[in-house]
Amino acid sequence: MKIIASLLTILFLFSAATQAQDEARAAWQITNFDITANVQQNERALNTVAVLSANNIGRGTGASFTFRIAAKAVIKSVTAGGANSIFRAVPESYGNLQRITVTLPTSVPGGGSLAITINYSLPVESNTGLAAISPIESQFLPLSFWYPLPNTPFTVRGADTAPFRLSVNGTNVVSSGNEKSGSAGSTVFEQPLFEQPFFVQGDWEKVDGSGEGKNITALVPRGATADERKQAEALINLAASARTFYAGMLGPAPDVPIRFVTVRRGSGSSFGGTILIDPGTLRRAKVDAASAMLIGEAICRLWIGGQTAVRGEGGGLLREALPRFLATQFIEKQFGSQAARTERLRERLAYSAVAKKDGPLARVTPLESTYYGSVPNKGAMVWRLVDASLGHDSFTSILRDQLQAGKASASGINLAALRSAVAARGGDKAKTLLDQELDQVTDLDLMIGVPVQRGAEWVAALRNLGSTDALTTVRATTASGEQLSVEVTVPARNFSEAVFKTPAKP
User: Fold this and answer.
1) For residue 367, what pLDDT is reported?
2) For 431, left (φ over 0), alpha (ψ -120 to 50), or beta?
3) Burial (CB count within 10 angstroms: exposed 0-12, middle 13-18, buried 19+), residue 197
4) How distant, in Å, are the alpha carbons of 228, 386, 416 from that of 399?
5) Per residue in 234-246, is it b (16+ CB within 10 Å) or e — as a string?
6) CB-based contacts of 412: which residues, under 8 Å, 6+ apart?
7) I need a labelling partner for 329 at 20 to 30 A (CA). Which of 86, 114, 166, 357 fits?
8) Neighbouring residues of 20: CB distance < 8 A, sequence distance ≥ 6
């Protein structure tokens, strides 16, 4: 009950951003980040000027603008519309964050736009996998909250994503998007996809892909051995295969570079086509299962969330779960059905650890401890059920149409629209499936009795202890090795039977 009460409180606190468009109030949506960052090695601080471009997508007039940033960030000045603005900082009620509310010099009506400039410094007292400054390797990943953003990953709406321009002082800097020449010894990246700004600074050698691997590179540790470079080429080839696989399914691939970057901290993350890996990955004899899934999901997100923005409540089921489901399909094509079965087993085991305390999938946020065990894993299994219910080609067609439509507008893709499209194609059966799996807590528990003979048939009693109807397949093997299967619907909190039309004893 404490978990349920906590979840309801969180949803109440953070539903404002989602509901804002339905109320007579302002709601800000970031359309572009323009960030200039200077790493100060001696002072162990990051001095930054961030320009946020935003639209008021609400119906009300915006007299203030609120953003979140790391609690240790020191805000020096804020300007809006070219004028200095008054701002107030208070600790945020979640995470190690502060909330900055800026009073705008001129109110912005619904449908209007705003450019706000924040000048600040972020000290780094100790290095972590999210924020680090050192002569060997410096990095600032999105979850360090090193740049200002109105919405965080902990909100129902999810973190703000938008195209960005990032300029970082020095060389050997890596981010996502297209690298441009900067001025005064800086490195510039321009990302056209909907992403979160980040950067890593280190010392690498480059391994370039060729053929299908064009525009894919790997940044390996300087002095890497021939075997390590060969393994980097294997990663590049796998990413190329994934890009081709998703292009056939979801439409033409986004025209952005794909990079593998070896890092000492923060490996396993991916942002806008840049995949952070541990140097040890290159010392393995072949690509391991975890790296294959990381690549499959990272490339898939170039379409889902990258080329087409993910908006609205329940976005994790699109950002996290859909890429995992589709990546498992890629694994099956690339490595065979056994590899895919192994991955699905891993998903089930990961979800089983949190199944008894999980909330409804469509409403869980990363503030809940169950989020990363449930949303990516159970969510992937739910999309697999939808795929099986509609048929793979039909579901793929819906997904491709939704992504293409969202790409052409600022509204992007959202869970509500995808659910409506699935229900329209699959009817009441598909709608009921999504309602049960996304809006209700999973309590499915099926029992089967010992088969008994009834004339020329064998019958097994079934019981459903859960609160939702279950369509399931019951399989039996006879003494001679013959396998029989029947599909049965077991009503919620009720009984049914599996009837095997054979005189042979199962």
Assistant:
1) 87
2) alpha
3) buried
4) 38, 12, 13
5) ebbbbbbbbbebb
6) 194, 308, 309, 310, 311, 406
7) 357
8) 26, 27, 58
How many CA within 13 A on the CB side of residue 242? 31
Quick one: CA dihedral 205, 210, 213, 216, positive or negative? positive
Longest dimension (CA), the chain: 89
CA atoms 283, 285, 286, 288: torsion sign = negative
Looking at the DSSP bridge assignments, the partners of residue 271 are 274
Nearest Cα residue to 39 out of 171, 226, 225, 222: 171
Yes or no: say if 413 and 310 are a contact pair by the CB < 8 Å rule: yes
The amino acid that residue 490 corresponds to is V
Taking the C-alpha atoms of residue 306 and residue 407, their distance in angstroms, rounded to an integer, is: 9
C-alpha 282 chain-centroid distance: 25
End-to-end CA distance of the chain: 43
Question: Within 10 Å of residue 479's Cβ, how many Cβ atoms?
Answer: 8
Contact 115/131 with Cβ under 8 angstroms? no
Q: Starting at the earlier edge strand, list the strands of the sheet with 62-70.
A: 62-70, 97-108, 86-91
Mean pLDDT by 10 residues, the chain (506 residues): 40 39 76 97 96 94 95 97 93 93 94 96 95 94 96 87 95 94 87 97 95 95 95 97 97 96 93 96 94 98 96 93 98 96 96 90 89 95 94 96 89 94 92 90 89 93 90 90 92 94 90
Which tokens hold the place of 474?
Answer: 């019951």
> Burial letters for 141-170: b for 16+ Cβ neighbours within 10 Å, e otherwise?
bbbbbbbbbbbbbbbbbbbbbbbbbbbbbe
CA dist., res. 479 & res. 457, Å (int): 15
Evaluate whether 263 touches 278 at the Cβ level (below 8 Å): yes
The residues near 383 (Cβ < 8 Å, ≥ 6 apart) are 317, 321, 322, 325
> What local confidence, expressed as pLDDT, does residue 82 receive?
86
pLDDT of res. 409: 79
Q: Which of 356, 354, 329 is nearest to 343 (CA)?
A: 329
Q: Give, as one character, the DSSP assignment of residue 461.
A: E
**How much is the pLDDT for 348?**
95
Q: Which residues face 208 on adjacent strands?
A: 217
Instruction: Give the amino acid at 100.
Output: I
Q: Which of 353, 434, 351 is nearest to 390 (CA)?
A: 434
Rg (CA), the chain: 25
Q: Which two tokens stand for residue 269?
A: 């993350």
Q: Which of 422, 333, 335, 343 is nearest to 385 (CA)?
A: 422
